[in-house]
Design brief:
By secondary structure, the protein is an all-beta fold. It contains 3 helices and 77 strands.
């Protein structure tokens, strides 16, 4: 009961000596458990019943004691190998002990000796496994426990067990190769396998292809659950020896101890022969394993997939050449994986396998195959080799072995450069030559671009493209077929694809063409930019098409830096424009006007002005399908011409500066006309388009002219002071003409990226508008101009540049012909008025005044006295002394206008008058405009209105007698400096002959004058003592006029200066001269001289005779009734008595017979 309940009782036997004995001895048989259990304490109980009534019975219990001895059976079982029948034969086995007799004490079963080994670990190969073992307990063939031994872990065989070798006491029971069991069961042919005895047996299994480390443990029977692992038997040999090789069912890991791989070509897209050398650690001709070699990592190739087909094993797939036996077979190629699979194990279809020739053992492979290299560069690929053994679940797929970088020996001679021979190394294609140049530097010119290039390696990729980039700003429009003038000796297509915006030309390799690693030349034509620029950074690159396209790395091209001999190099210095790398591609010379001069013909206001231009450029100005340069010349301040076409072929006029180049230019489109420009009146700008399909040569001066109207200046206009002309007239060329889609050629604008040295003619460092050279000389052939008047649009205030005036006579009161010569500096249109003023002293009846034509040019007919009046007259205003000429026909500065008119000079002398000339009303649109009165230039010889002041050049006086009371003849001699014209009624007046005894007489006789040009009488006025006489005829200047008249002297003495004056032609009174001294009208002072008085007697009261003696200083004429008076005769008695007051008057009486003539007495 209890612990024995699980033990099967097989028999029971009562072996007591006597039935009545109190010692009960009995036995029973049980089968020990297969594994140790807890040793129980065996006890007993005895129930004493009373006639079967348990309730009345007694329960007796107790424990068994162990025997104190071993029975013979025990002793026999504990013997040490006492013969073949002994169950225990291991000499070291522990003998039985007393405790072993304890009921259900079960010894532990374990393996005393356990060795197992195999003779090889080769995949897919039959191997003999040998087992040696001994156990710690006997194994019984019969009974409750099976006597068989089961070895577990023997899985992995590709076949059932083929043979079993053992001693006669062992036999094979069964073999299950399932991976779940993998067990071999064998048992003893005898009843028991003895404990401690060595048992040996062997059997054959076939290795699978999978690598394995072998069996892990064996278990014996069901009660050997905890048996130990068998120890490897390493004492014997083992094919494919390695550590663990003898471990049962261990299968060697296939390895490839030597690998080598290389290639024949590193060039992109080339057909590349791959050479591979492989050595394995096992025989590769293991047909049962179906070995398959796979090369992996052959990435980048362009070779398409080629899978070997069972249907066509020799025609489908990638051809592989066995270099050992020369056989050619096919493998399966997968491009995306870069793998090549070769079946080595037998036949696919009817084709032999790769190793189906030669020796039965093959450890090494040497073969080649062709791949097409990728188009892109790549480093050596990490290629690995793996040999697959088996199939399905029975497969060994060892980790791939990477080919080392070392090359197979066979490639060294082909490729000394080991790096380039490594498998699928593909050279990076680069340009070793990359040279570019051009043949013209002119804007808009047709430019032959020449490119020379070479690659470092041959280029064989179909449709390879060469790209030349950054030829920016060319005017050539985008096109898919830009013709190549030279196309690399036919290696390239005859045209390329041109993209204008990016300046890119793509050239494609011709069909079935390739490029060797040598120089190729390509030429093509581009239209240069219209704008100056430095040569752009041009690059060259390429595209190698393929399954995965690649590029030839972009590199900067080398540029030609030489000069272009065909270009204009300038003349102002030794090198000119040389030395500026103008052969570099798209190095575009900036347009600079080397000569840019401008001048005008006339500085006069409101007239037609011929403006002359001289232009010379440093570049070819080209008008073609892309460009039509337009030159703008602006800042013609206030110039006027109707907006539109302006004729450039100016009329010959005013000293032309040179040949006319007008037909090199045209006006704006549409309706462009050669020989014309376009004038914008709002901005005073002239635009010159280069004539269609023509060009202007550099270094050539082009001279042309055009006509505009100068602005009206002066009083009554906005330009009251005239205009000095702009300080700068600029010339430039616009980028885009307004009249078409073509482009202009702009003037060079300074950029920091361009050396200014090459543009030595520049004057402005700010804009592309260059200041022109302004003419500074005198205009030819016009009047009153000065230096700088040829400066364009320099306009004077209108005036008369010729304004001369002279006269015919300076004689007072004479008819005087005034001659006027004038030239206006503006156009005087009909109804204009010219006023000549300041004719001081001139006299003529107000109203029409006839105009004379002194030069015979009919100039007088250009004027009238009124608007639309009669030609040949002016209008005279005698009050204001002005002559007004009303213009009948336009007059300008083209010639002198000479007219004359007669006036009467004043009677008085006067200095030359300041004659002024003015004009007005000559522009209807400027009603207040006028030429301000300006002084005319007087004729030096005959200054206008100069009237000689009449004067006496001779004025002598004499009188016949100075005696008191005498008749005195006055004689006057006169000579005048001027003609005395009767028109002014000249009267000669003598004054200062005062205190005469001649009464007023209006017809005082004149003695016959010489010459006889005087009246026979004159007017005498006694009071003022003047005598006036009129001329009867004009007296020429410097003619001596002598005349005399008689007056009677008074008795009174006097001396008064005598003067003469001229009236009518007034000459202020001047003293008459006598003997070069001032003449005086004199009457002698009569005086007594030498007078004395005496008496005869001094005595008182005596008669006394008074005696008086005297004489006179002059003759005394009787007509004076001379009386001698003696005073102071006082004290004479007799006389006093007679009333004598002391005064004695003596009257002089005539003396009879006196000799004194006349009535003189004394």
């Amino acid at each position: 009961a209890g612990v024995l309940s699980n033990i099967s009782l097989t028999s029971f036997q009562d072996i007591s000596a006597s039935t009545n004995s109190s010692l009960f001895v009995f036995s029973f048989t049980v089968v020990n458990p297969a594994s140790p259990v807890a040793v129980p304490t065996v006890s007993f109980t005895q129930s004493l019943s009373d006639n079967g009534c348990p309730s009345l019975g007694q329960l007796v219990s107790g424990s068994f004691d162990l025997p104190c001895f071993l029975s013979d059976e025990w002793a026999d079982k504990g013997s040490i190998c006492r013969g073949t029948a002994s169950e225990v034969c291991d000499p070291s086995f522990t003998p039985l002990r007393r405790e072993d007799s304890r009921p259900l004490l079960i010894r532990s079963a374990f393996m005393l000796t356990g060795n197992i080994g195999q003779d090889n670990s080769l995949p897919c190969t039959a191997t003999t496994i040998t087992v040696t073992l001994s156990l710690s307990v006997p194994v019984y063939r019969t009974g409750a426990c099976s006597s068989g031994i089961t070895l577990t872990g023997l899985y992995g065989s590709t076949h059932f067990l083929t043979s079993f070798f053992a001693s006669s006491d062992l036999s094979l029971v069964s073999y299950n190769r399932s991976t779940s069991y993998g067990q071999l069961t064998f048992g003893a042919t005898s009843d028991v396998l003895r404990a401690g005895k060595l048992y040996n047996f062997s059997f054959q299994l076939t290795h699978r292809s999978q690598a394995s480390t072998g069996l892990t443990s064996f278990a014996i029977n069901t009660y050997l659950v905890a048996s130990s692992l068998l120890n490897p038997d390493i004492s014997g040999g083992c094919s494919g020896s390695y550590v663990g090789c003898r471990t049962p069912m261990s299968v060697a890991v296939l390895s490839l101890p030597y690998l080598g791989i290389g290639q024949s070509s590193p060039y992109p897209c080339s057909v590349n022969t791959i050479f591979a050398s492989i050595t394995a650690n096992v025989n590769l001709r293991l047909g049962g394993c179906r070995p398959r070699l796979t090369l992996s990592g052959l990435l980048g190739s362009q070779t398409s997939d080629a899978l070997r087909s069972a249907a066509s094993p020799d025609s489908v797939g990638l051809a592989v050449q066995d270099l050992v036996n020369g056989a050619s077979r096919r493998g399966s190629w997968q491009r995306s994986l870069g793998s090549l699979a070769l079946d080595l194990w037998g036949s696919v279809g009817t084709a032999p396998d790769f190793l189906n020739s030669g020796a039965s053992t093959r450890l090494g492979l040497l073969f080649s195959f062709n791949l097409t290299n990728p188009s892109s560069t790549q480093p050596a690929q990490s290629v690995s080799a793996a040999v697959q053994l088996g199939y399905g679940t029975e497969m060994q797929t060892p980790s791939p072995s990477v080919f080392p970088s070392a090359l197979p020996n066979l490639n060294y001679s082909l490729f000394p450069d080991a790096g380039r021979a490594r498998v699928l190394v593909v050279d990076a294609v680069s340009f070793t030559t990359k040279f570019i140049s051009q043949n013209t530097t002119y804007p808009c010119d047709t430019n032959l671009i020449t490119v020379t290039f070479a690659t470092n390696v041959p280029v064989v990729c179909p449709s390879t493209t060469i790209t030349i980039s950054n030829l920016v700003n060319s005017l050539t429009p985008s096109t898919a077929s830009l013709a190549l003038v030279a196309n690399a000796n036919g290696a390239l297509n005859s045209s390329g694809s041109w993209t204008q915006n990016s300046g890119t030309l793509v050239i494609t390799l011709g069909v079935n063409q390739s490029l060797a690693a040598s120089n190729y030349t390509v030429s093509f034509v581009l239209v240069n930019p219209n704008v100056a620029q430095d040569s752009p950074v041009v690059s060259i690159s390429g595209t190698l098409p393929g399954l995965s396209s690649s590029t030839i790395s972009t590199v900067i091209m080398d540029k030609s830096t030489s000069d272009l001999p065909s270009m204009y190099l300038g003349t102002d210095c030794v090198n000119g424009y040389g030395g500026y790398s103008e052969s570099s591609p798209l190095q575009i010379r900036g347009l600079v006007f080397e000569k840019r001069s401008v001048g005008q013909s006339i500085p006069f206001a409101g007239v037609i002005n011929t403006v002359s231009l001289t232009l010379q450029t440093n570049v070819l100005l080209i008008s073609n399908a892309f460009c039509q340069p337009v030159i703008n010349i602006s800042q013609f301040t206030s110039a006027s011409y109707p907006t539109g076409d302006i004729w450039l072929v100016a009329q010959p006029n005013l000293c032309p500066a040179g040949g006319n180049s007008a037909y090199s230019f045209q006006s704006a489109s549409p309706g462009a006309r050669a020989g014309f420009g376009s004038w914008d009146n709002s901005s005073a700008r002239l635009s010159l388009w280069v004539t269609e399909n023509q060009s202007l040569s550099p270094g050539v001066a082009y001279v042309l002219s055009f006509q505009v109207s100068n602005p009206l200046t002066g009083t009554g206009t906005a330009l009251t002071l005239g205009q000095p002309g702009p300080s700068t007239v600029v010339v430039e060329s616009f980028v885009t003409p307004s009249n078409s889609l073509k482009r202009g050629t702009p003037s060079y604008t300074v950029s920091s990226s361009v050396s200014l040295m090459k543009y030595r003619y520049l004057r402005s460092l700010v804009t592309g508008a260059e200041p022109m050279d302004l003419a500074s000389d005198k205009p030819c052939c016009v009047c009153n101009v000065s230096f700088n008047d040829t400066r364009p649009m320099r306009v004077q205030v209108p005036f008369f540049c010729v304004k001369k005036v002279g006269q015919s006579s300076s004689t007072p009161c004479n008819v005087n012909t005034i001659t006027v010569t004038f030239v206006p500096t503006t156009l005087l249109q009909p109804n204009s008025s010219i006023t000549i003023s300041g004719l001081t002293g001139a006299s003529a009846p107000s109203g029409p005044l006839s105009l004379l034509d002194p030069m015979g040019t009919l100039a007088n007919a250009l004027f009238s006295n009124a608007f639309n009046g009669t030609p040949g007259f002016g209008s005279w205003d005698n009050v204001y002394k002005t002559l007004t000429l009303n213009v009948l026909k336009p007059i300008d500065y083209s010639g002198d206008y000479v007219i004359a008119f007669n006036i009467l000079n004043p009677t008085q002398g006067q200095p030359a008058a300041t004659i002024q000339i003015a004009a007005s009303n000559f522009r209807p649109d400027y009603p207040l405009a006028r030429i301000v009165a300006d002084n005319m230039l007087s004729d030096v010889t005959n200054p206008p209105m100069f009237v000689t002041a009449p004067a006496f050049t001779m004025n002598t006086f004499s009188q016949a007698s100075t005696l008191p009371c005498d008749c005195s003849t006055i004689t006057v001699s006169l000579r005048f400096n001027v003609k005395l014209n009767m028109a002014c009624f000249p009267i000669i007046s003598i004054s200062g002959i005062v205190q005469t005894d001649s009464s007023d007489d209006s017809a005082l006789m004149i003695n016959a004058p010489v010459p006889a040009m005087l009246s026979l009488s004159g007017q005498w006025r006694q009071g003022p003592g003047s005598f006036s006489v009129s001329l009867t005829n004009s007296l020429e200047a410097n003619t001596v006029l002598n005349f005399s008249f008689t007056v009677k002297n008074l008795a009174v003495t006097q001396s008064s200066p005598v003067s003469v004056q001229l009236n009518g032609i007034p000459i202020a009174p001047v003293s008459l001269l006598q003997n070069n001294s001032v003449a005086n009208y004199r009457v002698d002072n009569a005086q007594l001289v030498n007078y004395s008085i005496a008496q005869a007697s001094p005595w008182p009261c005596d008669d006394n005779i008074i005696s008086v003696n005297f004489s006179t200083n002059v003759r005394l004429l009787r007509s004076c009734s001379p009386t001698v008076t003696i005073r102071g005769l006082l004290g004479f008695n007799n006389i006093s008595n007679l009333g004598f007051n002391g005064i004695l008057n003596l009257t002089v009486l005539p003396v009879v017979g006196s000799t004194v003539t006349g009535d003189s007495v004394l």
